[in-house]
Amino acid sequence: ADAIPHSGKYDGVLGVLGAIEALRAIRDSGLRLKRPVEALMFTSEEPTRFGLSCIGSRAMCGRLDAGYLNSLRDANGTGFLEACRGGGYCKDGATTAEVLEASYVPKGGVHAFVELHIEQGPMLEDEGLDIGVVTAIAAPASVTFDFVGNV
């Protein structure tokens, strides 16, 4: 699970561990569900070392190009596929296209998503509330500026 720098020690981790615990509780309760339930961790959702956000969810939706991903390098010159292999996200010898194909879920393949997330501001604390329900979020974005001229 990725996290924004200085976002708190539970950012990223809480959602993953919370999902695993929810699955355990459902299993232990014996509850029979109408639909399958899975824990899912998207990698690289926040602005990443490759300058591209939402890599995991874009891959799942089929919104990434293998050639473009192959062109990405981090500050150390490490390529995207090399980083995937180093993190255990794909087998040695797998191509970027194969990684993307394995990540893809066709439209309609998921009924709903639920995410447990830490509060990244003081609103709940200020209101004396333990929990809140988010109904909308701001989409992540990053911008690069090049300034040309004389100072």
From TrEMBL:
Cofactor dependence is on:
Mn(2+)
Which Gene3D superfamilies would you find in this protein's record? Answer: Zn peptidases
A single Gene Ontology MF term assigned here is: hydrolase activity, acting on carbon-nitrogen (but not peptide) bonds, in linear amidines
The family database entries (Pfam families) matched by this protein are listed as:
Peptidase_M20
Biological process (GO), any one: purine nucleobase metabolic process
Family matches, as InterPro entries:
Amidase_Cbmase (IPR010158), Peptidase_M20 (IPR002933)
* Keyword terms: Hydrolase, Manganese, Metal-binding, Purine metabolism
| PANTHER family in the cross-refs | ALLANTOATE DEIMINASE-RELATED (PTHR32494)
Share what the entry says about its subunit structure, partners included.
Homodimer.
Record-given protein name: M20/M25/M40 family metallo-hydrolase
